[in-house]
């Protein structure tokens, strides 16, 4: 499914549908394809917005979780969105949290985290990245999912292209280190928004206990596990994921 990529100033983004904005933040190896099922489903009910996070375009000093959060803040201000439902997967969840903690006045109505970093995550491992080793990258991609078949050749090719670009590798390592250093811990108690945590029961990157810890620390939060599902539920089990999220968003109507 191809979507029109819109631009406003330095921002590139997708915007489909009408209604309260559902703003989606992807992870470190994220792409639009991660959210295709969500776009198709939720554009019937919401304005689905996906900013293209500048993972490889920030200067090296701004290449951090905080730098990406600043970008999201400027994007939201530029677009003038209100009543935002902010969803982040993996690093995108971490960026969403830092954005809210730095901008408690942000026009965000609810927060949705799935496989978010910010407390603990298993990275690509000490040997990452092995440039030129396609089989290694394929195995790492498969670890993202409960069902390794979800890691299609197209998806592995995308990752392989990234890790064979020296500049992109430097940016990815810098962002990954920033995520590990920027542990949020007790700061999460300051999150005021109603929060839905949707976690794969078989996530090996941010295991189930991470979702449980987020629920303990974020005051107004609820946690739903999806069985036979890894680190990216919206890709692996989109039907179940969308039902859980839709029910949560419905519960917030007229509030």
Automatic annotation (TrEMBL):
Q: Which Pfam families match?
A: Abhydrolase_1
Please name the InterPro entries in this protein's record. Answer: AB_hydrolase_1, AB_hydrolase_fold, AB_hydrolase_sf
In alphabetical order, the GO MF annotations are:
monoacylglycerol lipase activity
Determine the domain of life of the protein's source: Bacteria
Residue ranges of domain AB hydrolase-1 in the record = 21-135, 185-236
| Record GO biological process | acylglycerol catabolic process
Signal peptide region: none
Q: Which is one Gene Ontology cellular component term of this protein?
A: membrane
Gene3D superfamilies of this UniProt entry?
alpha/beta hydrolase
Annotated protein name in UniProt = Pimeloyl-ACP methyl ester carboxylesterase
| Annotated source species | Chitinophaga jiangningensis
């Amino acid at each position: 499914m191809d979507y029109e990529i819109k631009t406003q100033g330095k921002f590139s983004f997708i915007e489909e549908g009408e209604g309260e904005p559902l703003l989606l933040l992807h992870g470190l190896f994220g792409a639009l394809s991660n959210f295709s099922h969500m776009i198709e489903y939720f554009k019937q009910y919401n304005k689905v917005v996906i900013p293209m996070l500048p993972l490889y375009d920030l200067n090296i000093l701004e290449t951090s979780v905080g730098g990406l959060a600043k970008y999201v803040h400027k994007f939201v201000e530029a677009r003038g969105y209100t009543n935002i439902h902010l969803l982040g997967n993996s690093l995108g969840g971490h960026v969403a949290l830092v954005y809210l903690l730095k901008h408690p006045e942000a026009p965000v109505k609810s927060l949705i985290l799935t496989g978010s970093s910010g407390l603990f995550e298993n990275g690509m491992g000490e040997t990452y990245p092995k440039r030129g080793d396609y089989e290694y990258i394929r195995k790492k991609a498969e670890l993202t999912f409960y069902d390794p078949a979800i890691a299609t050749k197209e998806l592995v090719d995308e990752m392989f292209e990234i890790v064979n670009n020296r500049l992109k590798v430097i940016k990815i390592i810098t962002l990954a280190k920033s995520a590990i250093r920027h542990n949020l811990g007790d700061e999460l108690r300051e999150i005021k928004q109603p929060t839905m945590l949707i976690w794969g029961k078989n996530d090996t990157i941010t295991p189930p206990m991470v979702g449980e810890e987020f629920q303990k620390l974020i005051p107004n939060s609820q946690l739903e596990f999806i069985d036979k599902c890894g680190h990216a539920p919206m890709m692996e089990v989109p039907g179940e994921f969308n039902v859980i999220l839709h029910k949560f968003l419905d519960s917030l109507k007229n509030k």
